[in-house]
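> tool_call: predict_assembly(chains=four)
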Amino acid sequence: MPRGNGRGPAWWHGRFRGCGYRVTVGREAILEVLTKADKHLSAEDIYMKVHAVYPAIGLTTIYRTLEILVNLGLVLKFDFGDGRARYELAEGSKRSTHHHHLICTNCKRVVDYTDFIDDEIELLHRTEKGLSEKYNFAITNHLIQFYGLCDRCKKKK
Amino acid sequence: MPRGNGRGPAWWHGRFRGCGYRVTVGREAILEVLTKADKHLSAEDIYMKVHAVYPAIGLTTIYRTLEILVNLGLVLKFDFGDGRARYELAEGSKRSTHHHHLICTNCKRVVDYTDFIDDEIELLHRTEKGLSEKYNFAITNHLIQFYGLCDRCKKKK
DNA sequence: ATTTAAATGGAAATGATTTTCATTAACAAA
DNA sequence: TTTGTTAATGAAAATCATTTCCATTTAAAT
């Protein structure tokens, strides 16, 4: 049974130390927020949640930690077009299921969907393979987003 | 034969006027740069090219015009993760062929690819249909990007 | 307990994009 | 063509998410 469900060293500690990073209170808090949230959050969202428990931790630390997490592949960073990045745990890290995003270009609402994901993933892997051979890239990730007008915004127009 | 290849009113004039927008020298210049460039450019890239011919046109106008063009669907706006948006003519507007992007997460180099596009598009359309029904979105667009390390950056690591 | 480099916070800097506002220009109407 | 209305414009200032700086704190190896 994997660690990190309750007490004890969390699942990411090893990964962190292995890369020469230290485990700190702030980092614990940030990971905990991300794990609990299980949906995309902005740096400021995370800051506020962390701040409620550890007021000493600053926004700068949030950004610095997120950068590390993204580089380690533990967290995914998204741009939904409203000028601030969003973060969420990567698949496999724990809770989060692989999903893609459906974004309203008017109100910026974001819907996570998992429908059709299997077909998408299958094709993506095939494409990934072809691309990495042809262009000599080591592909590590992909992004799929759909844009349009949501229910509400459709009516207003 | 479509207009806008040499002299005469360009293909987008009607579209522009129809939406209540005026055709101005600056807008002509911006569209011309976009049409000639046929690859993603930042607002500043466009500004510099336009500025070379019409020094009177400011960066503000570039941003304002790009916003209109994106809203009209004539231009696509991308985020490659280096902090500045890139713009390119939408498919069908003219020159540009539908393609997707392969981005080096290290040096931010971007490769446009058209390989596998047909398969991708086919799947996307199917997914789009399913999504718009299930979530009641009017889907107008999609984004696919692959991330990884390019040739050069792979070696350096 | 000691040591040392990594991590931190807070303030200042950055830098792309937006907003403001007084002026200019597009173009519909006469 | 001249005129009137209103959108479009440039320059400068404002915004605002994210980064950088630097003096101080702290994780964790010894």
